[in-house]
Amino acid sequence: MSRPPADLDRLVHNAHDIGFSDLAKTGLKGQQDQGQVCNLISRDLSGSDDLNVSLGRILPGQHHLCHHHPDASEFYVVIAGTPLVHLDGSDYRARPGDGIYIPRGTSHGITNDTDENVELVVGMSKPADWEFVSDE
């Protein structure tokens, strides 16, 4: 039994073709979330029904607000840079190659207090529509 060919236009996406967009959340005191994201695998792009994967970029001096997701777990894989990752009140100096698991409900954020860009692979356990609850 032969299968139809894969729909590569739906299954394969490249960050250089899509580009990055600025994060658009607002903190508890009206502060702007900082950083950029390029969605690569999602419900809308890929038809995924179980996960979302993006590339994230935090520029020097930027801070991705501490927040949590009551309905989804998340992970980061650090590709470049050495950000300060905030996890439920603890800070961790990440480095390239680190995989960081963030269980649902865990407060987390990232500060790039260095002079180099931070690049991350970011994954969510839902394909879309997870809740973002600001903790700061």
TrEMBL record:
Q: What's the superkingdom here?
A: Bacteria
Q: Which residues belong to any copy of the Cupin type-2 domain?
A: 57-122
What SUPFAM superfamilies does the annotation carry?
RmlC-like cupins (SSF51182)
Q: Is Iron-sulfur set as a keyword in this record?
A: no
Q: Which UniProt keywords apply?
A: Metal-binding
| A Pfam family recorded for this sequence | Cupin_2
Keyword Metal-binding assigned to the entry: answer is yes
The name this protein carries in UniProt is Cupin domain-containing protein
Species this protein is from: Microbacterium capsulatum
From the broadest rank down, the organism's phylogenetic lineage runs: Bacteria, Bacillati, Actinomycetota, Actinomycetes, Micrococcales
